[in-house]
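Protocol step 4 of 6: record predicted structures for both targets in the notebook before any analysis. Target 1:
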Amino acid sequence: MARLIFRNARLFDGRSDRCESAMNVLVEGDRIQQVSSAPIIADGATVIDVGGRTLMPGMIDAHVHAFFSDISVQKVEQFGESYRTAHAARMLGHALKCGFTTVRDTGGGNYGLARALADGLIQGPRFFYSGKVLSMTGGHGEIRDIWERPRYESICSCAGTVFSALGVIADGIYDCVKATREELRQGAHFIKIMGSGGVASPTDPIWMNQYREDEIRAIVNECVERRTYATAHCHPAAAVRRCVEFGVRCIEHGTLMDAETADFVADRGAYVVPTLIILEQLVELGRKMGFPPQNQQKAEAAWSGAIEGLRHMRAAGVKVCFGTDLLGDLYKHQCREITLRSEVFTAIEILHQLTSIPAEMMMLEGQIGCISEGAFADLLVVDGDPLQDVSLLAADGAYLRTILRNGELIKHVD
């Protein structure tokens, strides 16, 4: 088993608000075995002298879509599985080079891609996925335009469920439970539902609440029985509140959060994964990239309230995670989300959003997003102090001297 010793590190463990100087960390295989202020000696170990630089956990992007190869949901479907997979390999490789050692795919990711990453067929971060997103007919998971008639085949002859590459249409308790069980059967780490209208879908207004209470509670119950959780796509405050009230653990986006709803979310201990960068980029580049006018209008409406929503979350003490939601070629802007959050949050708050908070949300506390004995060996050596200057992490990996993922050296500069 390979051994690595990181010596003389200024250590940020992902959980605290400060760094410890002159620390040493022993990695054996894929795990951290020892964290100590005293010198560590291990036979056959390779020693990396950090030289007083910052050693921190690998970053977590808690909202990606690896297979979303275009900003048009129709094109994603039309280009086919091979094209989507090639895009995923490129996007995930970029994420790892930027220091994201874990990503959470919130719609479309599957066992095949997770296995390819685990087996080293492609290089990328640790990969957790929800499988296909669950949506009601006419909801945010629909890719059919207003003039189109139903055209998808059923999953089986006994069910009315229809599906695309990224989502499942399921209506009523029976179909919602069946679709949830099917995604969990295929290895989904959690389940995502569409709890409100969205930007990229063609027919639903963004203010629209989606799924009935009984449908949401049925899905949540299936997740609880599997010892996992449900998350919900929500933009408006009304959708956020009802989804949290009905048992959803996490909210994706939460863009139009108001103060009252933020207080409610915080009191319930739910999590939110804001995704500012996708909205900024769609507002700036959507028209040039062929984003339909009706979708462009929704993007602009969501972006207009996004920063204010963050301020409400911060004031209420909501547990906020880092996420990006970038589509197609926009994946290159992943690190800019850090810059956008700096308008509202401090450097240490953003660092927690990148590490320990999403780990806790994903039910992986103590395994990822931290430097502690027994955790996975996902580590970064930063040339500088990100607790004082978080922009060091927003430079597409330029200030990362070392990237360690699962005990494997991805990058190392002496």
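Target 2:
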Amino acid sequence: MTIFFLIRHGEPQWDINEKYKLKGHGRDLVPLTPNGIQQVYEASKDDRLKKAQIILSSPYTRALQTAAILSKQLNIEVQVEFDLREWQPDLSFQFDTLEQLKELGDDFDKHKGIYPEGETRLWESSLMMKTRIESVMNRYLNFEYVIIAGHGMIFRTQYQIDEIPHAYIIELKKKKL
């Protein structure tokens, strides 16, 4: 049995996106706010995390910064896993405004993350996200305790919760295959 500690990144500094007019995945380069940094330092004090043997991280800045703080505080190595990236609202990588992001997110929510029969959408489906994160977790079932620094939407494919607060820890048990 492996216990995964899914930790959503700290609060990100989203206003950078508008300031620099970032587009597509450029919007995922934002760092944590000072409050977000503090959130992660507080989360790092959780005694459960002291058992962890490795930290896995999404490649996005906000998750990497979260993983770096956890690594520093817990003295655990970080492994970046590309498939831990956040939900992709636009698989064409072209969205560039908050309005477009909201429209894509609203459509995702309207359809509960499932493409309508016979249709596709720009956004990544829940099943696509679930498959990605599970493939990563399955590669680490040889560990007893694993921290994953990542994102709310992808974690919601593993744990039924509507909104995951920043730096929140979800404990998830997974049996070896």
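Step 5 preliminary note on target 2. The chain has a mean pLDDT of 93. DSSP finds six helices and five strands in the chain.
Proceed to step 6 after PI sign-off.
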